[in-house]
Amino acid sequence: MTGEKRAIRGIGMTSARTRERLVQRLGETGISNHAVLERIRSVPRHLFVDEALASRAYEDSALPIGQGQTISQPWVVALMTQALIAGADLPLKKVLEVGTGCGYQTAVLSPFVRQVFTIERISGLQQAARTRLNELGFDNVRYRHGDGFKGWPGQAPFDGIIVAAAPPEVPGALLEQLNEGGRLIIPVGPSGQQDLVRYTRRGDQYLREQLSRVSFVPLVEGTG
Ligand code: SAH
Fold first, then answer.
1. Which residues line ligand 1 (CB under 6 A)?
2. Most CB contacts within 10 A, which of 132, 133, 203, 217?
3. Residues that are catalytic
């Protein structure tokens, strides 16, 4: 066996066991949606991080992806996805994702949605995510290099919006771009101590539910 093949097999064997352990752990910590747990089991998270970190890909932790950014913790991705789709008619038609990063959340979300629209402010990350997701066969994703504070007005309204970085306050443009009954899942607050919140649109009103205390990188205005 070549060194390369051995390395790939090594990761494969580690990941089968450690993926199972990860799914079990999420099941014990509030992730009850089986379809979401199945996504965590099947999306190859080790392909979304640098090779040097691949052996840690099925730990329930955020990991660096370059440019000072991180791949979100699997538990957080699962919680946000579960909060978005709970009780909804699937697939949702249009979902906006703010903060593509490496594209892991996009991959988890993809089969629950007819069309995913994803925005990233750092061009290098956006291009790498697009290449990776194309190679993995995700063909229902549209990409934009831009500032997620503004949403994607040309494609609104959305049935759901997921934001993977934390603004100090909820951006009005994102609330406005929700469809009737649409949900916005967003961390809000200062660095390191945010509330993950779900807003549900009812006409001009928004139902606000607090989901958890979380720690995200900040949502930064403008493009990088
Ligand atoms: N969704 C990723 C998490 C990425 S971390 C995952 O699945 O792991 C958050 C990302 O949000 C970073 O890539 C960061 O560059 C991006 N970001 C921060 N502010 C933004 C903004 N205003 N518009 C779009 N993306 C933004």
1. 69-72, 77, 98-102, 104-105, 119-122, 125, 147-149, 164-165, 217, 219-221
2. 133
3. 72
What CA–CA distance (Å, rounded) separates 124 from 130? 10
Could you read off the pLDDT of 81-120 as tens digits, one per residue? Answer: 999 999 999 999 999 999 999 999 999 999 999 999 999 9
Counting Cβ atoms within 10 Å, is residue 108 exposed (0-12), middle (13-18) or buried (19+)?
buried
Spell out the domains of the chain, with CATH numbers in brackets: 64-214 (3.40.50.150)
**CA neighbours within 13 Å on the CB side: how many for 117?**
20
**What's the pTM value of the predicted model, to 2 decimals?**
0.94
Question: Ligand 1 test: best mutation among 220, 221, 223, most atoms within 8 Å of CB?
Answer: 220
Distances (CA, A) of 112 to 30, 68, 177: 20, 29, 20
Mutate which of 46, 49, 69 for ligand 1? The one with the most ligand atoms within 8 Å of its CB, which is 69
pLDDT tens, residue by residue, 153-190:
999 999 999 999 999 999 999 999 999 999 999 999 99
